[in-house]
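Anyone else keep sequences and structure tokens together like this?

Example one:
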Amino acid sequence: MIRKYWWLVAFTLSLLMVDAVIMKSVEYFASDTEQCRNMNSVNPLKLVNCKDLQVTE
């Protein structure tokens, strides 16, 4: 069956790769600043600007 429909499998995989590239490029061009996670905050899942975080050692 894979021999008969190899083109369908290849087409599906190529569509998934193209979709991933499009989504990554949209995400890259849509973000104005680099986003980071503040692990010391109450909500570490919230994205904040990396410039706003101060590194303390």
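And example two:
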Amino acid sequence: MAVARLMRKPTTTPKPTSKAEYRPPQRKPLPAGQPREWYVTHNRRLKAMRLAIALLDSGIYHPATADNVRIRATADRIGVHPPSDTTCRMVRALIRYGR
């Protein structure tokens, strides 16, 4: 009995780049015409996501261990302005519901 075998195209693996060659992705401009509050919440969400990722990378997996002091210290470490209490709550929510 003949069996058909699926063949894949050979994939090329990208060359590893050094840190000197790393360039962050180009940012797109935000859409015009939104109310100011939309931009505020959009930027707050972006900052909260950056902080949540940095906390998870540093081993903070539970929202109870991510107090405001630790979140603000992480913001200082990654070079972000200190977050507000609202942003700290959002960071804890991202950690909680991302599990």
